[in-house]
Amino acid sequence: MDITPLIPADRQVIDAYGPGRFRVSNVVYETPIIVFPDRTIAWPVTDFASLRADDFAALIAEQPALEIVLLGTGVAMQLFPSALRRAVKEQGLGGIDAMDTGAACRTYNVLLAEGRRVATALFPT
Questions:
Q1: Does residue 13 lie within any of the structural domains?
Q2: Which of 72, 77, 66 is nearest to 17 (CA)?
Q3: CATH of the domain at 61
Q4: Residue 63: domain span
């Protein structure tokens, strides 16, 4: 019995992640990335501690609006600063769920399989 969720072929599935890299739909990335259901882009950020509201512009601009945004913070879960959370929300991006990158990758794939409008912004582990 096959229990693998069916995901349309044109969707961006996170195949693997590891130290300093991701594989999304068979393409390898060695930088922080943002994965949308239909595309993956490089995320021009350096580290979690230096995040600013402007770093979320691509997620804010997405149309139709995203239902869920996951933030993969790296090897360990880090708290999303409340001031930054407020600033991003004021620019139109609702809730962001921060978790370690592995959890964000797995959760993204499950939500994608459910057909949800989800994206994930990921720092490598």
A1: no
A2: 72
A3: 3.40.1230.10
A4: 31-122
Whole-structure pTM value: 0.92
Q: Please name the residue that has the structure tokens 């929300």.
A: 89
Place of tokens 């582990």: 125
The answer to whether 14 and 108 have CB atoms below 8 angstroms apart is yes
Strand bridging mode 68-72 / 118-122: parallel
Residue 9 binned pLDDT confidence (cut-offs 50, 70, 90): confident
Secondary structure E strands in the chain: 14-18, 21-24, 27-29, 33-35, 40-42, 68-72, 96-99, 118-122
Q: State the Cα–Cα distance between residues 116 and 63, nearest whole angstrom.
A: 14
Q: Does residue 76 have a pLDDT over 70?
A: yes
Output phi, psi for 68, to 5 deg: -140, 135
User: Is residue 54 assigned to a domain?
Assistant: yes
pLDDT at residue 84 tops 80: yes
> What is the Cα–Cα distance from 81 to 124, expressed in whole angstroms?
19
Is residue 9 within 8 Å of 26, Cβ to Cβ?
no
